[in-house]
Amino acid sequence: MNGKKVLSLALAATMSLGLLAGCGGGNDTTGGGNTSTPAGNTSSGGSDTSGTTIKVAAIETSYGTEVWQQVADAFTEQTGINVELVTDKKLEDVIGPAMQGGEYPDVIHLAVGREAGLTEQFIKDKNIAEITDVLSMNVPGEDVTVGEKIIPGFVNDNSTTNPYADGKTYLAPMFYSPCGLFYNKGLFEEKGWEVPTTWDEMWELGDKAAAEGISLFTYPTTGYFDAFFYALMYEVGGEDFFFDATHYAEGIWDSQAAQTCFDIVEKLASYTNPITPAQANDQDFTQNQQLVLDNKALFMPNGTWIVGEMAEAPRADGFEWGMTALPAVTEGGDRYSYTFFEQMWIPAGAANVDAAKQFIAFMYSDTAADLFAAAGAAQPVTGIVDKLSGDNQIFYGIYDDGAMAALGSFASYKSVAGLGTTREVFFDPVNALVSGTMTKDEWVSSIKTASDQMRANLS
Amino acid sequence: MRRNKGRSRFIVLCVAPAVILFFIFMILPTLNVFRMSLYERGAYSPTETFVGMGNFQALAQDSLFIRSMQNTILMVVVVTIITFALALIFASILTHEKIKGTNLFRIIFYIPNILSVVVISGIFSAIYKPENGMLNSIISLFRGETVTVLWKDAPLVVVSIIIAMIWQAIGYYMVMYMASMASVPESLYESASLDGAGRITQFFQITIPLIWTNIRTTLTFFIISTINMAFLFVKAMTSGGPNGASEVALSYMYGQKDAGLYGYSMAIGVVVFLFSFLLSAMVNKATKREPLEF
Lengths: 459, 294
Known about the structure:
The complex is a heterodimer of chains A (459) and B (294).
Chain A: H1 2-35, E1 53-59, H2 66-79, E2 82-88, H3 91-100, E3 107-109, H4 118-124, H5 146-149, E4 172-184, H6 185-191, H7 199-211, E5 215-217, H8 225-246, H9 256-270, H10 276-279, H11 285-293, E6 297-303, H12 306-309, E7 321-324, E8 336-345, H13 353-362, H14 366-374, H15 391-396, E9 404-406, H16 422-427, H17 429-435, H18 440-456
Parallel strand pairs in A: 1-2, 1-3, 5-6, 8-9
Antiparallel strand pairs in A: 3-8, 4-6, 4-7, 4-8
Helix pairs in contact in A: 1-3, 2-14, 8-9, 9-17
Chain B: H1 2-36, E1 39-40, E2 49-50, H2 54-61, H3 63-96, H4 102-114, H5 117-128, H6 134-143, H7 157-182, H8 186-194, H9 199-210, H10 212-237, H11 249-258, H12 262-286
Antiparallel strand pairs in B: 1-2
Helix pairs in contact in B: 3-7, 3-10, 3-11, 4-7, 5-10, 7-10, 10-12, 11-12
């Protein structure tokens, strides 16, 4: 009898073990990571990098993968450095396990703000190689430096490329895209509506549209609120407020400017298509984007990639994409459009740092910019807008039409158990605001509590 | 004696590969999980700091973790009870009632089990679609007006996931119960019906007691697989949203890893491990009966 008891317990234990086998697999390899010292700057001694092979890992987005191969080939031709290219839509899952084992690609093109937050983790751990000197390097095959080619504002005083606010650059800006509110231009012409320039006009339009059974607003997922909220913060309080707010300054959320932001989001939530939160997940978010194509919602925050993303989707007759900056808070006030851009960086543990830096420098060459532009991606180099075509030229012209560019993001802080990410704290509750399961006051007070902790853990 | 020694050496040699592999790939990583739960480190950073029970103390105060654990427990309980009941009933009907197409039904019930969870979440995405989704269209048909139930919004989202999980699991357990029901001798039912026992009495007095060992095994399966499957379903259907309402323990653990809290997520792993282990042990103890022979 007793033996049986022991046996059955043992069996139960074995089955429970299966539960953890998945996580365990990862651990086994991390053990190796502890002991191996990062290769670091082993190659920094020699300047002759031709003939070496670098590993480049790039996220596959709506721009496709072919362009990466073309750029890599052009780079090899120019410098003699071979490129081993890895592209994937879920890049984290492809390169993550090897990196846990201490094997890093030399160049990684992966933006912050993704769900897996891989880039953020490298920033928090100070695990990224400094690339300030790339700015003064000549672009391979050209006589200008990288710093001269990049559009001003993208690398200096930018909390995304210089995450530690110490004047040193760690992440190279890639593929910028203006974010704004996207709408159906055809519908506005058909109804004779004007695109609102102030929030007051926005609410008026919301009431008019509601009378016709159209909601004013929808959003794909709450992740799209970052660009929206950043631009809104610039509008209500300018650069100073934006800096204080994104660095969690004490009492900042009680300020008048912050209250205006919260009020606008709260009001916008009441004008949002009620089915939005039920579809605001990674599985169904295109259904929310479809609401705009079907004339069931007027505006949604998005980026220029939306045109390609929804290219195959059915749409209302006479549909035409339009994009506008956020409406101004006051009549004649500043209007902002957030500039989203991706980042390319070198892990501190990369084996071929010198060659990797050359690769980054090459990204800003005319050759590379032309290839990327042909795929619809705009490098932040001067004169890029002329290289774009069709819709994109109009979208990127938004800054010529009076909208100001909002750049930057929430400062990175050391991870704390139970604190959550900025998206979880600031933007996910918008779902609850829309469905009415949370009030604005609850939202703001949870932001304040979290913000205090974030400030205490600024990295 | 000599021969015996040689024999045991042979046995040791035969068993060794399995034991070694099991040790390296199951025991060692699990022990490592326990060790890592006492440290704090990022998933990709080579440095780690010892924090003792710090991670567990933080867990006790983490309201998001508590909510995800509540969701997990709710799913384990509800999915187990409903799947268990339905699988038993369907198995009993398909074994004992003379209905046409028994095999066809068996296959149909089993199909969800061989579908990938991603496919299932795609199917249920279409079913739960707020506008002209299958479920809302059917409800609208009976109500005579257009109904827009938000199945994947905050109050209902856990229920929606539970429904999908039950749909997926029934076939598997039904086939398991059918296998053991088939071995119950037909003569027992014949004599019971001669004694005047109806179908329902037969089910509770003969079928259930005679397949009890099988039921006990499946109860442990239920606990472990629900905890595991809940992660897959949540990941594929809602990614924990909206606003974390459908987060379960394992998906929360996964998210914490992405937030750069590797040690903390290992601590969650330890809690889930102990929870499932203790729950299985308790269920095992509570359902202990003297096995019936037939």
